[in-house]
Hints:
CATH architecture of the largest domain in chain B: 3-Layer(aba) Sandwich
Low-confidence stretches of chain B: 1-23
Distance between the termini of chain C: 33 Å
Oligomer: heterotrimer
Distance between the termini of chain B: 27 Å
Largest interface: A-C, 78 and 49 residues
Order of helices and strands of chain C: HHEEHHHHEHEEHHHHEHHHH
Amino acid sequence: MTDAQAAVVQASGIVKVFGAHRALDQVDFDLRAGEVHALLGENGAGKSTLIKILTGAYQPDGGTVRLSGVEVAFRDPLQAQGAGIGTVYQEVNLLPNRSVAENLFLGRQPTRFGLVRRREIVARAQELLAAYGLDIDVTAELSDYSVAVQQIVAIARAVELSGKVLVLDEPTASLDRNEVDRLFDVVRTLKSRGLGIVFITHFLDQVFEVADRVTILRNGRKIATHTLSEVTTTDVVRLMLGKDVAFDHHPTGLGGAARGAARVSFTGVGRAGSVAPFTLAVHEGEVVGVAGLLGSGRTEMARLMFGVDAPETGTITVNGVPVQIRNPVQAVAAGFGFCPEDRKLDGIFGDLSVRENIIIALQAKLGWFRALNPEEQIELAGRFAEALDIRAASHDMPVKFLSGGNQQKVILARWLAIDPTFLILDEPTRGIDVGAHAEIVRTINRLREEGLALLVISSELDEVVAYSNRVVVMRERALVAELSGDEVAPETIVQAIAGTRDGPGTPPSAPPPANGTGAAA
Amino acid sequence: MAVFKKLALGAGLAALLSTAAYAEGLQGKVIGFSQIGSESGWRAAETSVTKAQAAERGVDLKFADAQQKQENQIKAIRGFIAQGVDAILVAPVVSTGWDEVLTEAKEAEIPVVLLDRGVDASQDLYLTSVASDQVKEGRVAGEWLVGAVGDKPCNIVELQGTVGSSPAINRKQGFEEAIAGKANLTLTRSQTGDFTRSKGKEVMEGFIKAEDGGKNICAVYAHNDDMAVGAIQAIKDAGLKPGTDILVVSIDAVPDIFAAMAAGEANATVELTPNMAGPAFDALDAYFNAGTQPEKFIITESKLYTPADDPQGEYDRRKGLGY
Amino acid sequence: MTSPAPPRPGLPLRPVGQPPGPRPQPIWMRLARPQFIALAVVLLINWALFPGFFTITWQDGRLFGSLIDVLNRGAPVAILAIGMTAVIATKGVDLSVGAVMAIAGATAAVMVTSGLPAGLAVLAALGVGLACGLWNGLLVTALGIQPIIATLVLMVAGRGLAQLITEGSIVTFADPVLVFIGTGAVLGLPTPVAIALTLMALATLAVRRSALGLLIEAVGVNRSAARFAGIRAGVLLVLVYAFAGLCAAMAGLIVAGDIRGADANNAGLWLELDAILAVVIGGTSLMGGRFSIPMSVLGAIIIQAMNTGILISGFSPEFNLVVKSGVILIILVVQSPQAARLLRRPDRKTATASEGKA
């Protein structure tokens, strides 16, 4: 790439104001044809706002956007799409109960005499997805497929629609390493075809892997734009956070730490079609990490523990006393908490306030007639918001306006409010910026030190290693290994995930040593 | 004559059935009857009178309830044709879309008699239709009021049926014809009460408020008795005497209006007879036995009832008809 | 419980302590809601059409006047709307309430005409309404049928059931208790108005003093998240449908008592739509979540004020539906978020997005 290359998108002096808050302040950004340009920043830095302005979802309060040298002002994303800017958002934005093919061609189905030509759609959809290495039944409903496949379909659709620019807003958040590789192959192909690609992610190593340049935003201002070959990860992190961060690395002797009494134990708990019977005890002051590839049964295990799916076999005891957990109500009564993987779908109550989102589980546990009065609610929400550093303009504002990281903390606060005996966190750092990420890891360590029993599912190995006393490994819907002591190390875990035979995928790679931001794939 | 076979229906039928002159003539005939449904008391009465008429004449009546759906009626008629009935009675739920099935009946040489409502189809597709003259009903009601008021000035309020329905249009027209040219009668307010008791009451309540507490209203004309019954309650609630302070005239002659009449709270009603089947059977009898082609439109009588006509007795008689 | 961690250094934090709570609004601000303005406008138009509209007199031991008529006639829909609000807040809808009114009225009427005591008839009618609601609730929860379909079953079948009970005719009665429910007066107010106001107050207290309101809203906003948070969503859903059935039975008793007869064919006909409209005018979204029972009652009163205005206007009845739908359209447009955005000046916009994902 040369500097002489013409910018396909040129945004200058962009300002966006929400109320009294300047979300973007005089931000410049340019994207050249045939480059991958990463956009980095903490939550609240202004990444999404900038993207929404480029794609027409927001109108800027100041500044200009030029597309191929011509000044544009998109009224809505559809217009931007028509002009050549396609977008794939973090959360798949398609119709789950329509077929894959329909989703690909929605709004522009090939028709003859006004009739949709179904066979042609199917053929073209198959052809299109083949280019992404996807050989699936395109007539099946989109929701029948994993988030990973859905994400790829969304990307395929956007690539089809956009001619010049593709915006990828955390496309890899839900993909495993294989799929990420496949996606990056596609990204490189598209790049060679001359598309300008804006890439937003929290995975720093992915930025270095695929992007040519990086622009870093902080607090609504542009901090720097660099060619990636000229900077290191540490430089980038420093620019993002304005300081160095690192995990409180693997706690001393954590693996071999003396265990307290067994807080909860699951013996032979299983369910046909979900997870094979497993036996696992979590002790007081212990974090058990759960590792495994996407679809290995990690989430299914958590759902059984929490009664979201009723176990068919096995017994569960809390502090040695057998309990029955066949639904979440019983789980909550037993003092369990569960931060689910899909925050938007299973976690937050978007239209309810931050305060209500925090007190809701406690209220459900107390029952209908022991209502927390407003003072108690304000006190509880204030206490936990402060403890977890939840940043919201007001606790009365709908939680949907909070960033992903803050929403995650709200759900965590919800469970801390019931004074849990056992807490399950499923991918607590997914889709969360680096700063909040480190903070959540710190919180997990703190909760452990305070004596809580935790089970944490994560795809990020260095993160798992950073807080786990023990790590259990899932493979093909069964618990296949339990690692403790010195075994709790990325290499050992990778071997356990891979098992005796080499799986189809490369196991997640260890992060660059200097990184330390949990940016492992 | 096998009159009163259906004792269960009570003595009330006697008066209605007395016209059964050709009764022996239909003995053993199989006749299909596709009824709209049972959406009103009058409809229920029509059904029970039809069944009684058939029983009395020895007709084997095949009854089919269409539950307000034309496709059910068409299905029922096709079923009747397949069974090879001798004749078919239809109370059509809508007026259009009958040509095909009526042609099928004609080709099978099964005479069809329409009850209560007409259809938009060629007249040679059915034998005859039996219906009331709704314009005439309105006229009879209006003429009664003209006679009752005499030369005194009288402001009339009208409770219309459902907007756009043919009884509402026709009963309004007939009434207006009757009072036209009488300078002392003025129709001051007219609103729809949707043929229901509660809407009749609500609308009358509004009229009374808007007309100086009802002092400016001399009579209420309701397109059916149910609305009149509602209006009577509104008049009473306003502290006035229905039937005296405000005259009440309506159409249909359902039992409850006779109860009101007996209590001196209603003044006149015009009968819409539920006995559509009687004239229909008569016409079929003449057609089968004497080869007489009946008139294309048989009009039922629109009889006026006033407190002089033994309202309590009428109430008791009609109560058994399923109103 | 975990002790609060020290705030991270270097990051801007709110002033330590309580975050801003709900800002108390001055009373005129709260009255400036579109619903109150709509009601005022409709009432003023009525007054212009009929100068005696606001005249209220004391007659036969009760208040008497057009304004009282509006409340009295609006009471059945208001009562339906109270139950409907809870259902809609859970992202559901109950199409069967009109039919349940007919069933309840028919039950009570047939019982009193066959000589049973009125108290028993009233209890039976309410019990039948409750049972209908439970049926709807079970279809929605146990069988997972979409509410609009589940309640459509009873909407269609229920009226037939009522017709079976009355055998197709209007069952007329003169029972003083039932007549009192429909046309009596309590402290000068028509009984239906007294019942509606009492029910509104009790229901509002019940949902706001207990946790029910919040839990219902949570289920409506995100049923899956409600399950994960340990809320008994199924039981709550059955409860709200049962409550809607009970309200419908109450309304059914009122309309039957009002005309001293149970009209299975017409009682409550299409009133489910008026009730849904009342709830929507009151500002509760069909998408579930936030709800306000008093505002739904206000919505019912707006609808009835409009109906009464049309009645006394002297317009030809052909205009009724056009006028009504026109006015409703204006109300809905005015209270739509888009219109609110246009009406509000940008600098008054709350900083909801300030901490948003940027």
